[in-house]
């Protein structure tokens, strides 16, 4: 069986909402390289740090393209082609289906396509490129089992969501086993960014004891974490990491709402459903470069922008009402976009980000010495301007560090090379196990009393807000319910809500089952006097469960895969 001694290379993968990429380093000589040569159109290469998180399917869900080549071409050039594959379906933003939001708020997918398949297929297409890159750099061939993979995930993801991604990673062919892999790690996106910024702290004259805020502004999520520099090139978590769905794609969404007011909601719906490639082309080739990337909120500098429907999305013309068509023909199918229009696209999204920052600053007792903006949206002139206006009086240094787009990738590699750089983490959920004590009259609900006079309860091992070290175990001692019991099944649950007594899964309790661990209980002649110490270790996002039979010293441990039971590794002491 492989172990960490066999690992030769660390590869970080930033699977983003709008853009994805990978970076790598040799474990012996850890110079970090960000892969920057991606497939373009017609087998060309584009020198960019990430490719688009887009996938294109043909008939029968056969994969046609992924990344940048899956983006649509100029609608004009498409009309000139005699043979256009109308069966092709281009899919993006599928990562948002992992977000903990109602289904109606998630972006639509083509009928019959499961978001897990899209994630799995995208990651599977990236895998050969990673292998080719590593083998060219360090021949002979490097096996995937010799690669430590580090995936960065949004701060607000709950354990079961990470479990879904873990299954997709396995199905995409990165891992030898579905569970308990020695070469898979997870870190949060703001934590990875914090590690990267820690290495840049000297440029900003930050010292040990200084606290800084990371604001990771991506395409889908904006994630924040407050960290403190500690001795030995390490960081500790000062507040609960937070995040929300207010990334740059929500500005795109507001642009669509603007067009719906001009051309009708049904017209935009038909465009997206029947000509998604044109809708996508308009967003990526018109809205982003001409509006989103340039807007700085200065009305005096702003010049009216014209959107030429015939040029950017001619298919729209077929779906507008007769009344709108007549009006647009008089305007030569040109739509004027004014300052107030663009301001309204940005304002609600930016206000959400400002609220997140304010809440983070208020939640820390320490003075924030610096704020670092990373991620693609961090380069928005308007966002930076608003953050500086709102917080320059509270935070002396607000900066966009070098390479903000790849900060997470670089930091995730750093985490894989040295996990001890994260000195402390702050728990964002309450963790515990299901136990079965005796039901107590006038204390416990009568409806919950079992036939054998017991009651199922939640026994909390670690409370939300607790600061833990990587090697710290949060534990308690438990006993079998029955004297002839030959095993104990520990079911681990987590919830962000306080003071929960029971393990019922509901919106009210917020309970999610994290995993299970079964241990053997020999020596039945001792009856119920067979104590077992059960604990959880939170040094990594993959939680480690441990159990020790205090009677015979037999120990069990395993990493939770978050969604199902696993086999426990056993060692006798």
Automatic annotation (TrEMBL):
**Residues forming coiled coils:** none
Highest taxon listed in the record's lineage:
Eukaryota
Quote the protein name from its UniProt record.
5309_t:CDS:1
């Amino acid at each position: 069986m492989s172990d960490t001694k066999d690992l030769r290379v660390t590869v970080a993968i930033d699977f983003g909402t709008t853009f994805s990429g990978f970076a790598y380093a040799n474990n012996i000589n850890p110079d970090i390289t960000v892969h920057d040569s991606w497939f373009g159109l017609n087998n060309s290469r584009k020198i960019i740090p990430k490719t688009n998180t887009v996938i294109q399917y043909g008939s029968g869900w056969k994969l046609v393209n992924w990344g940048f080549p899956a983006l649509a071409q100029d609608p004009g050039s498409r009309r000139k082609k005699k043979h256009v594959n109308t069966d092709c379906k281009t899919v993006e933003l599928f990562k948002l289906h992992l977000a903990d939001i109602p289904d109606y708020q998630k972006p639509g997918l083509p009928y019959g396509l499961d978001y897990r398949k899209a994630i799995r297929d995208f990651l599977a297409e990236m895998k050969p490129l990673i292998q080719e890159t590593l083998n060219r750099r360090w021949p002979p061939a490097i096996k995937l089992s010799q690669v430590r993979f580090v995936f960065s995930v949004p701060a607000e993801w709950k354990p079961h969501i990470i479990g879904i991604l873990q299954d997709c990673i396995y199905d995409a062919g990165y891992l030898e086993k579905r569970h308990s892999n020695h070469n898979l790690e997870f870190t949060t996106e703001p934590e990875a960014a914090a590690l990267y910024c820690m290495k840049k702290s000297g440029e900003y004259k930050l010292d040990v004891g200084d606290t800084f805020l990371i604001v990771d502004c991506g395409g889908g999520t904006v994630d924040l974490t407050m960290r403190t520099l500690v001795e030995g090139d390490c960081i500790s978590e000062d507040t609960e990491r937070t995040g929300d769905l207010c990334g740059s794609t929500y500005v795109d969404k507001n642009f669509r709402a603007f067009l719906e007011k001009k051309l009708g909601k049904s017209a935009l719906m038909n465009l997206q459903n029947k000509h998604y490639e044109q809708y996508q082309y308009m967003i990526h080739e018109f809205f982003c470069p001409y509006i989103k990337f340039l807007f700085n909120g200065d009305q005096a500098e702003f010049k009216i922008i014209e959107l030429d429907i015939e040029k950017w999305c001619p298919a729209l013309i077929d779906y507008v009402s007769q009344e709108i068509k007549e009006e647009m023909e008089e305007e030569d199918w040109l739509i004027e976009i004014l300052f107030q229009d663009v301001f309204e696209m940005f304002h609600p999204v930016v206000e959400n980000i400002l609220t997140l920052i304010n809440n983070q600053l208020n939640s820390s007792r320490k003075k924030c010495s610096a704020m670092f903006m990373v991620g693609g949206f961090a380069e928005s002139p308007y966002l930076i301007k608003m953050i500086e206006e709102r917080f320059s009086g509270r935070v002396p240094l607000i900066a966009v560090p070098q390479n903000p787009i790849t900060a997470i990738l670089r930091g995730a590699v750093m985490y894989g090379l040295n996990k001890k750089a994260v000195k402390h983490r702050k728990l964002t959920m309450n963790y515990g196990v299901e136990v079965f004590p005796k039901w107590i009259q006038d204390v416990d609900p009568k409806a919950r009393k079992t036939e054998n006079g017991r009651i199922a309860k939640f026994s909390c091992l670690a409370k939300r807000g607790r600061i833990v070290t990587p090697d710290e175990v949060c534990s308690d001692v438990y006993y079998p319910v029955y004297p002839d019991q030959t095993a104990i099944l520990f079911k681990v649950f987590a919830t962000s809500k306080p003071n929960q007594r029971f393990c019922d899964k509901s919106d009210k309790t917020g309970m999610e089952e994290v995993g299970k661990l079964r241990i053997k209980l020999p020596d039945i002649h001792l009856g119920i006097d067979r104590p077992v110490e059960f604990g959880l270790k939170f040094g990594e996002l993959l939680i480690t469960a441990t159990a020790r039979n205090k009677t015979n010293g037999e120990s069990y441990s395993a990493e939770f895969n978050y969604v199902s039971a696993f086999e426990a590794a056993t060692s006798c002491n």
